[in-house]
Structures are given as structure tokens and as C-alpha cells.
């Protein structure tokens, strides 16, 4: 995977929970431009290991002068966002991947409806710049519990087609109304909590939207779980996976080479064959098919975990 | 300009020819003495200096003549270049990729000067000097994909990614091995590969699709494919089968050496940044049996590969009717000696 060593040129507190970071090339060289909805993977040294988290780019996709991300602090998470909030400062050097996109706009659409909840607003911030530039019609709906939590407000332009729904103020998002009455060929995109994604898919189905016009951001952070062990088939080595660590992170820490891109179970890069499995794989990815899951002969180490007595990987 | 461009034709009197240097750098596709369909993907660019793998977009002695041949084909059949409306952005991405790469890799042939979106492009071999505004199609005589691919060797497919599949939603196709853009445009990856025998059952395409979907920005790949063509014809399209199909019947033991060509496709894959589309350039190289047997390793190997190939593949690759003549002809160059691994000729 191609990497970039960038300089942190701005850190801004948007709300007590969310910070915006800007990265630029240390020599001022242009960065690769990207497509709306793209993300980068940020590397964070953590003791003797490197944590890697993926974040949506929120800056203008056609602007090569810098990349911006917004990070919400998750105190119960695996530590990546906490590191960004407490240890990263202006002037630091940071290693990121080149942009990749698992949540792109369908440019065939006659109209785009973007629905974001909480920090799930981030991929839309680059998309709406792309849509403005292409002069494609769209509307954006952003839902948050309270204004204090709605970090996205500071990042959103004020425009008639950008709607903010604050439930504390009695202005809850009404999906039925939002999804009704669009021209044929409209596409809807959702990013946010699982519940919101499911509710939009549900409402769209009820209103007769074709499934190919309903999109959602597939990748999420790896869930923590019970610790477990895996065996590396080629060497016989055993690797212990801690409760707050993903299998991919544990393999990397143990020096086992493994390919990855999204680290969120959506791109397929980390797919690994299972050579022995005595127990149950918890498939948390969005990549393997139902048949592949049931067969338990493949695992996506960036997301999935295991309970049982023996899991051996073809590595 | 350091490079000499051939004055030659790919139709009619077929004056196409390879210089000795062009033969030595020919992308011979067989790395061993047998052939089976495989995905054989490598990183691109990268390869020995002077080889067609060295640069992102190879420019060789056939450049100017190939562009003239494309112009003739397009004048006869404008549907060889199509782009669905949502693919214009991918066209700009492709134009940028090609202009930036060529200006960097061949500074004596091409130059690109950029001030914001004001671009100035010079293509010396074709005598083009053009100022235009990037992302403003009104400032070019054609759409961006058509503009740049009228100046770049090889066919181009631009693939749109959606619903976990790739869709051929734009292309410039005038030097193809018997497939049709007009037929395939709008199709997905599995639909346009449907004619390949045995590959679907083998699961090769499921793997290839997964691979392609995962290709990221800045990671470029290539693979070689091959077929056989009678006469050095670029446009072996289904639309013009009546013109080139009957030529297959003109092969005799006397003329097979100079009329039978090995046709190699250098296929590359690039993820385009703004559109997230995949560019799939397919560059065609032609060498006659006479050209190839000047390299003793290739002569031996080609004989063994064609002699032992699965009859279904010989049929699909379009040379089943002439296989015996070809194999007999090549047998005189095969003394049974072992061949070295890899595709490059021996020194
Ligand atoms: S890294 Fe993308 S699926 Fe695991």
C-alpha cells in the first residue's frame, strides 16, 4: 500500500468531542486528489505497535494542497481516536495511506440524497464539494442529538438544500418525508449508526426504491471482544489477540505480513484462508458472502474474531 | 526527436514492419514452454530499460502510423469511441494520467505545462500544440477521453464501479482482438467476459474481479494476453469480420512466416482519482513468425506452446484452422534444446 509522510499543519477543536486535523506535504508538494467519500488510513505509534485507523477525508477532493479529517474521541474504543486527541499536535509528522474509496457517489444519479448521523457526516463533506463542482442536484440531511454534539454543523455550508435535524430541539429526522417524492433515478446514501442505515434501507424499500439506488458506508471500526489465539500454519507460531485489539493488529504486532486497505471489513484486501477451525468465527466484515461465512474457510482479520479451541490461518 | 517513426499501414498493402530493435523489445508472452489461462498480474510500470514495461504508456516506432490507422477506423465507424455521460470525469482523469506520464517519460516528444486549470500540451510526433482548460470539455475538440486516446497507442476501456461490479461505460476501441465496444458498452465484468471458454468455471474471473475492485490509487498493474492474427491488422473487430475473417484462409506453408502474426496485448490497470473509475488500457503489439524466429529461444518456445495447446483455446485464439501449418513451420526452428525461464530473449 502506498503511504505518505505528512505534516500536521492544523488541529482545531470543533466540539469537546471532535477535532479537525489538517495534513500537508512537508515540502509543499501536491497530494493525490481523490473522489468524494474517500478515506485515508492514519498510522499511530502506540508503545511497541502501530495502530491504524481509517478516517473519511472531509476536505475538497480536487484540492491537492492538504488532507483534512475529523476525529471523534471514543474513550471506550481501541485507543486510536484517543491518541489523535491527546498526542497529535501541529508540527508533528504523521504517516497516512493514499486515499481509497469504498463509498463513492453514483455519478449516473439524477439526484443525490445524503443522510448522515453523528460523526457519520464526514464522508459527505467531500462528496458535497464534488457534487457542487459537477453541478449535480442533491440534498443533505444531518441528524444529531444536540447542538453541542453536532460537530458537523461547523463544517457544513449554509444552503437551502442542507438540512440539520436536532432531536433535542424537537426537530427529528422524518425519513418517510425525506425519501418520498424524488424523481426516478435518485440515489440515497447513508452514513452513521447501524440503526440509521437500517432505517433508511427499510423506508426506501417500503417506498419502492430499487436496492441499487440505496448506498451506505460499509466500514466501521473493529469491535472489541473476548481474547483468543490463532496459529500461523507456515511457522506454527501462536498469536494472542487481546480484547481491545483486532486480529489484524495482533498479527502485525507479531510481525506477520498481511495485506490490508480499509481495515473495516469492506475492501477484501486482508482476506485470509483458514486451514483449521475448531470453533466459531465471528464474521464482522461486509466482504464475505453468506456461503463463505458458513464454510468457515476464510476470515477477514481486520474485523473478525473467534471463539473456540483452534483457529489456524494460511499465513 | 530521438525516436524514428515508421511510415507503414495496418490494412490494404500491410506495410507494417518491426525494426530489429522493435523485435528485441517485443513483449513475448510465454515465460515457459506451455500455456494455460491464468491471471498473471504484475506491478506496472517496471521492467528492463527499453522494454515496453519500463514506462506507464509505451511509445514506440509504430506510434504515428497507429494513430493514423485509428483515425481511418473512427472515420468509418464513430461508434468505436463511446462514453456514457457519467464517464466524462473519468475521461479527464485518464487525460491527466497520460499527459503527465508521457511528458515525464518522453520529455523530447511531449510536454505539459500547467498553471492551475490552464494547461498547455505539446505532442511533437503528431504536431499538436494545444492550450485548454482542464475539466472544461468545451475547450477541447473532442471529449477528454477521445481527445487523449486519439494520441495514445492501444485501446482503452473505462470501467465504472458500482454494486460490487465493474461496468464498461466508456471506451476507445479500434485495435481489438475480435470484441466490440458497441456490443459491450454498458455491460458488467462477467457479461463482457462470457465468451472466454472454461475460465468462468475455473473461477478465474471471480478472483480477477475481486482483485480489480481492490486496486487502489497509485497501485498500477499489468498482464499480458495474446492471440494470433493473419496480416498485421489492428482492427480485427467483429464489425469488420467480413474484411479480415477470410484472410485467415490465405495462409500457406510458403507465406505463413510473414503473414501469420502473434498479437500480444499489454493490459494495464489504473485506479483513477476523481472518478474512482478503473482505466484499462489494452496495448497491441504485432510480430510475424519471421520476426519471432530471429530469437532462437522464442522460436523453440512458440513451437512447443502452439503444438501442445488445448484445441478449445486454439479455436478461441483464432488460429485453429492454421494451427498445423504454423506448428509445422515452427518445428524447423526447434532443435529440442531447453529454453531459459522468463520472457526475455537470450543474449
Ligand atoms: S482490510 Fe479491508 S477488508 Fe480487511
UniProtKB/TrEMBL annotation, chain A:
Q: Which residue ranges does the record assign to the FAD-binding FR-type domain?
A: 1-106
Instruction: Extract one GO molecular function annotation from the record.
Output: metal ion binding
The record's section on SUPFAM superfamilies has: 2Fe-2S ferredoxin-like (SSF54292), Ferredoxin reductase-like, C-terminal NADP-linked domain (SSF52343), Riboflavin synthase domain-like (SSF63380)
Q: Write the record's keywords in alphabetical order, separated by commas.
A: 2Fe-2S, Flavoprotein, Iron, Iron-sulfur, Metal-binding, Methyltransferase, Oxidoreductase, Transferase
On whether Iron is a keyword of this UniProt record, the answer is yes
Q: Please give the Pfam families that the UniProt record associates with this protein.
A: DmmA-like_N, Fer2
Q: Which GO terms describe its biological process?
A: methylation
Question: Where is each 2Fe-2S ferredoxin-type domain found?
Answer: 228-315
Its Enzyme Commission number(s) read: 1.14.13.-
Q: What class of enzyme is it?
A: oxidoreductase
Fetch the InterPro entries from UniProt: 2Fe-2S_ferredoxin-like_sf (IPR036010), 2Fe-2S_ferredoxin-type (IPR001041), Beta-grasp_dom_sf (IPR012675), DmmA-like_N (IPR054582), FAD-bd_FR_type (IPR017927), FNR_nucleotide-bd (IPR039261), MRET (IPR050415), Riboflavin_synthase-like_b-brl (IPR017938)
Q: Which PANTHER family match?
A: CARNITINE MONOOXYGENASE REDUCTASE SUBUNIT (PTHR47354:SF1), NADH OXIDOREDUCTASE HCR (PTHR47354)
Q: Please give the name of this protein.
A: Flavodoxin reductase (Ferredoxin-NADPH reductase) family 1, Vanillate O-demethylase oxidoreductase
Which species expresses this protein natively?
Roseicyclus elongatus DSM 19469
Q: List the taxonomic lineage.
A: Bacteria, Pseudomonadati, Pseudomonadota, Alphaproteobacteria, Rhodobacterales
From TrEMBL, chain B:
InterPro entries per the UniProt record, alphabetical: HODM_asu-like
What Pfam families does its record include? HODM_asu-like
State the protein's name: DUF3445 domain-containing protein
